[in-house]
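Weekly modeling sync, notes
Attendees: S.R. (lead), two postdocs, one rotation student

Agenda item 3: backlog of single-chain predictions. S.R. asked that every request posted to the team notebook include the full sequence so nobody has to chase files. The rotation student volunteered to paste the first one in as an example of the format we agreed on. Action items at the bottom.

Example entry:
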Amino acid sequence: MNSGGPGTRGGRLEGSRPGGIRWPVVLSTLFALLLGWYLLYTQSMVRALRTNTETLTEIFTEVNDALIDPNELRADDALWRLNSLIRETGIPMVLMGARDTVLSVENLPFDVDISRPEGQERVRQYVRRLDLRNPP
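Predicted structure, as returned to the notebook:
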């Protein structure tokens, strides 16, 4: 006996399974999660671009102020300020000398003592990995 009307069997639609996956709900949930992730990702990218823009604006201002200032010491001050702005970006930087001697490091993702041979070697290995990813 079919108590649910035409196209039903025992009160449920033909072809549906009790306790089966409800695809519209699953797909809607996945879409909502993907949209949320995309919005967060986009927001973080906008924040990063704004930060980069602010840094480049500071660099541009510092250089131009030094170029038009008649004071000779202003150029030296500008170089020190530029050095500071570049370090504040958080980009890892390594200054190498003769025979791959590590002279200076900034913003490395690890602590290292470059005055020791093992510190020198660790930085060289890190630089080689960076060079593979981003050719110099």
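Discussion: group reviewed the output briefly. The radius of gyration is 30 Å.
Action items: rotation student to repeat for the remaining queue; S.R. to check formatting next week.
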